[in-house]
Design a protein that fits this description.
The chain has 211 residues and is α/β, with parallel strands linked by helices. It contains eight helices and seven strands, in the order ααβαβββαβαβααβα.
């Protein structure tokens, strides 16, 4: 990253899944603010009848909660920055491995004046996904689990992802799987097929990725 010194650049926590979750988190936070505002405008002095109505209304309101897991952050300054950015957007970060000395993965996006982009990726070689008790509990209380196809590049994914799918289905949680890109599917075809066989509900991919 020192090579970027002197160039117009910025550091941000991102990527398609993270950006989508941040958007959902912000929508969820807005929903809660609107609900709280409506509740305060319709507040009445406590009586037995109004108290019962308030309790009923409160119990019937479902707020969206968003979480991200996988090898999201490493034990370094960039990891702390990414975690803080996600949590500020109401996205919970669920660890899948014990704290370690692993570095946070970085993707550099180079954009030319004609809006063409090139990517340079660097991932930690020590990353490994583990089905922790915290991750199992998060899956169990979720309505939908989306598994990003690029997770196949992480150690332990071939064993853990089918486990996550089976656990989700046993809990009544819907499972979606993204392709990542055609090259990911090609490199990990048997793993992708094993995940599909384990019982996914939704597949995100184009014709080339499905082929």
């Amino acid at each position: 990253m020192e090579l970027l010194d002197g160039y117009d650049s910025q550091v941000s926590a991102g990527g398609s899944p993270a950006n989508t979750l941040v958007g959902l988190g912000q929508l969820a936070a807005a929903q809660q603010r609107v609900t709280a505002s409506r509740s305060s405008r319709h507040h009445h002095p406590p009586t037995s009848s109004s108290s019962t109505a308030a309790s009923s209304s409160s119990s019937s309101t479902h707020h969206i909660k968003v979480a991200m897991t996988g090898c999201v952050v490493g034990n370094d300054a960039l990891g702390e920055f990414a975690a803080a950015q996600l949590e500020a957007a109401a996205v919970e970060v669920v660890p899948t491995q014990p704290p370690s000395s692993s570095a946070t993965g970085v993707v550099m996006v180079f954009t030319t004046p004609d809006a063409q982009r090139s990517f340079l990726s660097s991932f930690s070689s020590t990353d490994r996904i583990v089905l922790t008790d915290e991750l199992k509990a998060t899956v169990a209380r979720s309505r939908l689990v989306v598994i990003e196809g690029y997770m196949w590049e992480v150690q332990g994914s071939a064993e853990v992802i089918p486990e996550i799918i089976r656990h989700a289905r046993s809990c009544g949680t819907l499972v979606a799987l993204t392709a990542g890109d055609a090259s990911v599917v090609e490199r990990h075809a048997s793993k992708v097929q094993a995940a599909i066989d384990a019982g996914i509900d939704i597949w995100f991919g184009n014709e080339a990725e499905a082929a």
